Amino acid sequence: MGPTLASSTSIDVLIKGIGGHGSAPNVGRDPITMAAYFITQLQTIVSREEDPQDPSVVTVGDIHGGTKRNIIPNEVKLELTTRSFTDKSRQTIIDGLTKMAAGLTTSYGLPADKAAKVTVLENESTPVLYNDPKLISAAAATLTKAFPAGTVLEQTRVMGSEDVGVFGLDRKIPVAFFWLGAMEPAKFDAAVKAGVMLPGPHTSKFEPLPQPTLEMGVKTLSTVATSLLQ
Description:
By secondary structure, the protein is α+β, with helices and mostly antiparallel strands. It contains five helices and eight strands, in the order E-E-E-H-E-E-E-H-E-E-H-H-H.
């Protein structure tokens, strides 16, 4: 209960340089070198600026720059996502990236029109999924009574994100979010015993059992709904 899934913030970073020929790097300013430095430096936001008790993650998932091996390009684009459980840690990351971008521009002696730019994509971002303690406790109690022992388990919070949190309207509307198992039981038990994880969503090797999963999903949702409506 409480913060259950992290917020996800999409951020673009555009690093500009002065392009030229690979044989004369001193004539320009190499944005690929700057991007490499920026990527290694930004990891210190989490390790040295964030409160260790307030976890967060910064990931550079995409980098684009250059057209040919002997040409220094004019710019490099980075696509990032950040994960956090509080508005404070989220803002610490955004502020850290902005300051590092400004420092990069200064340290490489670039003019204002070549300044590195950090853009937060709010339309591609999701808030923290906050499980209302009272509502999720009621749902858990109902499901525990309705299904066999060991079926309903408590899950620790994870850094994954879900746009379900949007429906909470910044906690104005209580939300109860729970996971639904979808894997073949024998394979799942074998994986647990072996200490390995089965392939999950976002991979072509994800192998859910559609029929029993859908049936259980309908049963759990209808059970909780009818209980809350009584």
